[in-house]
Amino acid sequence: MNMVIRDGLARNFLAGRWVEGEAGARIAVEDPATGEIVAEMARAGERQLAAALEAARGSVERGDLSAMRPGARADLMRRIASCIRAIADEGAPILCRESGKRLSDARGEFEEAAAYFDYYGGLADKIEGKQIPLGSDYIDYTVFEPVGISAQIVPWNFPVSLAARSLAPALAAGNAVIVKSPELDPLALALLGRAFQEAGLPEGAVSILNGIGSELGARLVASSEIDQIVFTGSVPTGQAILCAAAENVTPSLMELGGKSAAVAFEDADLDRLVESVQGGIFFNAGQVCSAMSRLLVHRSLYDRAVEAVAALAGGLEAGHGLDEAAHTPVISAGQLDGIEAMVRAAPGQGARIAAGGARLDRAGHFMAPTILADVDPLSDIAQQELFGPVLCVTPFETEAEAVTIANGTEFGLVAGIFTRDLARAHRVVGRLRAGQVFVNEWFAGGIATPFGGIGKSGFGREKGVEALYNYVRTKNVAISLKG
Questions:
Q1: Contact 70/125 with Cβ under 8 angstroms?
Q2: Which of the listed residues 33, 334, 337, 354 has the most CB atoms within 10 Å of its CB?
């Protein structure tokens, strides 16, 4: 711990070294549940970014990972997984305090991060090309090569697990990575640097830097030295990054916003639906890109569903994540202000507040678990990503209407269907505009299931075998055997 956080200051992990900010620059990290300062984070600047880029390029050119035998690289990945598990007890309380989430969920992030390295460790020696038949006079085959330097900008809602989600396949494929950590909660993510050290990751293969996104992040994605950009975050920031990427024609992987809808038909199991609502919109205070932010319910079930989810919301007790409270704060005062403003405007566009509707009168950044009923599908709150513990409920009459409403936003990340009729479920799955569809359980799936969106939810896929091929380039080799 003293290598990472010392005297209340966390340092950046730069190519195997722990460094402070340029000219002593720091960023204060707040506990969202109390408003108190947890620690300070060293603020990386232009010189440290240049050093990280130089170290990453050296690692790529030496082949620190790409020249390693695939089986050895797989062993390294599994050692990293073990080292992440070893720091979970230490890291979970830090992540809990800086992000506001429950302690058990914070520990779960470290466990999930380790699982990503185990999963992609199992694939590191299975990145195989193919032979293409061109006739007896030719031998033609493909090989996969690492992209080079992967610049990865990590969001604040799940900093440890989402960093691992892209770090693990990138390293498994033999790349070097520079991670820009979120300034709101960078402390626990910095601990991953220690896991890399203890596992024996070659120096230069990974740097984890923290700084202001509009400064450090913008410089990183604009650099001609990087070979790939991986971004998870808001649509406006993603659009700005893509503009920067266009200057150097840098390949990019974008996982952006969502306004995902669950469709509950008349035969839906109401108890299972309510259970999915609890996890779908109130887990992590709704700060999940794939949250169930809209619920479309058949008219025959509508009143009972609204009553049930309102009772659920009203029964969630707020408190600190260290106390395993059922309802935790949002990340910042600014986030809370934006959520509350949108909820307050919703009744003016026809919505009815069935539960919650305002911030809680207590220290910290707590928004009451909120249910908005009778929401117009075209209203602002049904169209714009809120990123908070607010569920918009809308009735529908027919299957066609439900599909139209579900598809009626600019986003297309995930969707859900609740029905006992599997024929209907399969039919509707094919009509929903989403990268992933859950049936009868929100957040079904796991590390092995590809994840990503369409439309303004972004492009490319994280997770699963499919994600590994984001981090390699295909090279074709055609050999003539004539004369």
A1: yes
A2: 33
Structural domains in the chain, CATH included, are: 5-256+461-475 (3.40.605.10), 260-446 (3.40.309.10)
Look up residue 69 and give its two tokens: 């035998």
Write the Ramachandran bin of 302: left for phi over 0, alpha for psi from -120 to 50, otherwise beta.
alpha
State residue 3's pLDDT score: 58
**CA dist list (Å): 65 to 88, 124, 150, 164, 214:** 26, 11, 13, 17, 31
The dihedrals phi and psi of 25, each to the nearest 5 degrees, come to -65, 140
Distance CA(172)–CA(278), nearest Å, equals: 35
pLDDT of residue 45: 94
Query: In this structure, what token pair is assigned to residue 265?
Result: 């038909």
Longest dimension (CA), the chain: 85
pLDDT at 93 over 60: yes
Residue 49 burial by Cβ neighbours in a 10 Å radius (0-12, 13-18, 19+): buried
- Taking alpha carbons only, the member of 368, 380, 427, 370 closest to residue 403 is 427
Is the pLDDT score of 306 beyond 70? yes
Q: What pTM does this model have?
A: 0.96
Active site positions, annotated:
255, 289
pLDDT for the residue numbered 4:
76
